[in-house]
């Protein structure tokens, strides 16, 4: 059999390249803090990639290269939105504002509306494309919105 069509072992230990991380189809709007976080991620990944190259760790190189591609694309597409703070509280929920809702069961929840890569609901940040955030955007204090399986009233915007 001819060896022309047989894949040679390249010394990579049979490591398959990792698929790229999916990129959201939504505009990549970010807060200034979100842009800074993207830049920190890129700097850290570049350091880790250099270390993986030095150590000749092909598995780490592949994983880090994939993350570098993702964060480089996110940095390139980032659209920074600066929230202009009015002397008084904002009149409606917008990207970058913080909103507090009161649910029917008495719970109060507060989130800041941010970009997709910044979102961490457990830490009080919610992606602007999340269903609850979409329901809140453009609304005012006193408005009632559908939040999950129940209604909630907007009680504060800052």
Task: Lay out the secondary structure.
Blueprint: E1 29-30, H1 32-55, H2 58-77, E2 79-80, E3 98-103, E4 108-114, E5 125-127, H3 131-136, E6 144-147, E7 150-157
Helix pairs in contact: 1-2
Describe this entry's structure for a reader:
- With 158 residues, the protein is α/β, with parallel strands linked by helices.
- The chain has 2 domains: 25-80; 98-157, Chitinase A, domain 3.
- The protein is 32% helix and 20% strand.
- The protein is built from 3 helices and 7 strands.
- Helix 1 (32-55) runs antiparallel to helix 2 (58-77).
- It is elongated and about 60 Å long.
Poorly predicted runs are 5-12
CATH homologous superfamily name of the largest domain? Transcription elongation factor, GreA/GreB, C-terminal domain
Q: Radius of gyration, Cα only, in angstroms?
A: 22 Å
CATH architecture identity of the largest domain: Roll
**Derived structural class:** alpha/beta
Name the beta content range.
15-25%
Mean pLDDT: 88
Determine the fraction of residues in helical runs and give it as a percent range.
Answer: 25-40%
Major β-sheet, in short? 5 strands, mixed
Described by the principal axes of the CA atoms, the overall outline is elongated
Question: How do the helices and strands follow one another from N- to C-terminus?
Answer: EHHEEEEHEE
Tally of individual domains: 2
Strand order in the largest sheet: 5-4-3-7-6
Straight-line N-to-C gap: 73 Å
How many distinct helices? 3
